[in-house]
Amino acid sequence: MAISNNRLLNIDHGKVTFRWKDYRHHDRQKIMTLEADEFIRRFLLHVLPDGFQRIRHYGFLGHRYRQAKLALCRQLLGVVLTLAGVAQRQDKPDYRDLYQELTGKSLRECPVCHRGQMVTIAVLSAPDRAPPSTTP
Fold first, then answer.
1. Is 107 in contact with 100 (CB distance < 8 Å)?
2. Which of 120, 71, 63 is nearest to 96 (CA)?
């Protein structure tokens, strides 16, 4: 339910007054009055279309202990988060090290001067599919 009836305080002259909880200020109860159109617009943002079902997260994805439980899951799986926020297994060598073992060539070395180190500056995303064909 998007809003319960006991939170509705007044409906008068095209305006709706209701009570809401301000989570940014220590869960303080506050009162807001909106035009009926704006209230209905905000209310409908919480209503799911037909065929959809709201899914709540439970277990290790539950909000209250998510950070601690995910940290425990990563520890048990032997995964470390890098600075970029990417999970990487501790016991698995990096693909660049494996490539160097197999080929004798380093992916970290500059392919032109063979002295400098290659550093990732940015990763560009590719489009999901090819552009449509323009030939008739």
1. yes
2. 120
- Burial (CB < 10 A; 0-12, 13-18, 19+), residue 79, is middle
User: CA 63 to CA 81: how far, in whole Å?
Assistant: 20
What pTM did the predictor assign? 0.41
10-residue mean pLDDT profile of the chain (136 residues): values are 86 94 91 94 88 78 83 82 66 80 88 82 75 64
Please spell the DSSP secondary structure of the chain, one letter per residue: --S-GGGEEEEETTEEEEEEEEGGGTTEEEEEEEEHHHHHHHHHTTSPPTT-------GGGSGGGHHHHHHHHHHHHTEEE-TTS-EEESSSPPHHHHHHHHHS--SSB-TTTSSSBP-----PPPPSSPPPP---
Return the structure tokens found at 133: 């064909």
- Rounded distance between C-alpha atoms, residue 109 and residue 118, angstroms: 6
CA pair distance 29, 22, nearest whole angstrom: 6
